[in-house]
Amino acid sequence: MKNKILAALLTVALVGTMTACGNKSEGGSTDSSNTQSSSSTASTDTEGGEDTMLGADSATVRLKVGTTTAPEGHYVKGLQEMQKLLEEYSDGEMTLDIYPNSQLGNERDMMENVGMGVQEMCLISTGPIPNFVSDFAVLDLPYLFENEEQAYKVLDGEVGTSLLGQLDSQGIKGVGFWENGFREVTNDKKEIVTPDDLKGMKIRTMENNVHMATYQALGATATPMAWSEIFTALQQGTVDGQENPIAIIESAKVYEVQKYVSMIDLFYSPCVLMISQSTYDGFTDAQKEAFDKAAEEAKDYQREYSSSYNKEAIQTMKDAGVTVTEVDKAVWQEAANAVYDQLDSLNLNKELVEKIQSSK
Ligand code: EAX
């Protein structure tokens, strides 16, 4: 097991090194005038790590999009679909250059850079967003949605549209809600069946107050950190476990250093596709139409890919000797409900919670 942790660590270190090199060679910000005039300097900015997935060389409007997730994962699959569709709908003029594995920084960094127009796009979980737009925090409540259909109905409806619109306060156009998935808990010590099994365990969470409060209410010690730090933290014992959707656990190979996965479905985790408002405003009407169409169709593709991927991913982990435990979710829901008594102290918009409850 130790060799596996070392291998995983070396992978992260290697990507980190290449990221640093990649960043050194990248130019500075891309302002909207460049986007339209498709400055040729953009192409010199497209160096990156070995995992970088550059669009067609011939494209002149290049949109750099970052994600913390693995190249084989469901975020990147959706971005690759959008890359293909954008090239098609713009007659080859526009493309995405995809930077996985935190090459452009952690989720909070990327959101700030997109807001400043330093980076064109990112695809990130809702984890860090409430630090910028507090209303997003309601989406991180435990057991808010029973299934994906309920989540899509709310996220694609009035509530989701309004939340995305609030990102303009940060200089960001919220393009759409894609899917991270229902978040499961993993560890390397023992099988987790009920919340009592979490007692005394240090569980890595996103830097998100609602997730932290929920794990504390379940009896664990919530330990927030950026995703890129997870393998080091697991190796050094800073944390005993972490929580993420199956697609992340499998594609990032977390299961190689975590023998137990418990299917608690504690949170439904969307991810948000963002573009710098200044970049989008610099598009021609035709470019906006191509971008919007490609993004909308890629969202549907990515959600379908996400749910089909999970079944295969669980089998991959079982074949690798991982214990995948189904739990009695009613027991978990009862324990997690304590967080709903903390809406005021967590500064959550109660009217918005009620609106979601009544519209799902
Ligand atoms: O957005 O930090 C996390 O656990 C996220 O799920 C991951 O970065 C993908």
Description:
The protein is globular and about 55 Å long. The protein starts with a helix and ends with a helix. Strands 1, 2, 3, 4, 5, 6, 7, 8, 9 and 10 form a ten-stranded mixed β-sheet that branches. Residues 11-46 have low confidence and may be disordered. The longest helix has 35 residues, at 285-319. With 360 residues, it is α/β, with parallel strands linked by helices. The protein has helices spanning 2-25, 32-37, 41-44, 74-89, 107-116, 148-155, 158-166, 209-217, 230-236, 246-251, 277-281, 285-319, 329-336, 350-359; strands at residues 61-66, 94-99, 121-125, 172-187, 202-205, 221-224, 241-245, 260-263, 268-276, 323-326. Helices cover 44% and strands 18% of the residues. The structure holds (2R,3R)-2,3,4-trihydroxybutanoic acid. (2R,3R)-2,3,4-trihydroxybutanoic acid is lined by residues 68-69, 107, 124-125, 127, 180, 206, 227, 244, 248, 271. Residues 68-69, 107, 124-125, 127, 180, 206, 227, 244, 248, 271 line the site of (2R,3R)-2,3,4-trihydroxybutanoic acid (EAX). Residues 29-46 have a biased composition (Low complexity). Residues 24-58 are annotated as: Disordered.
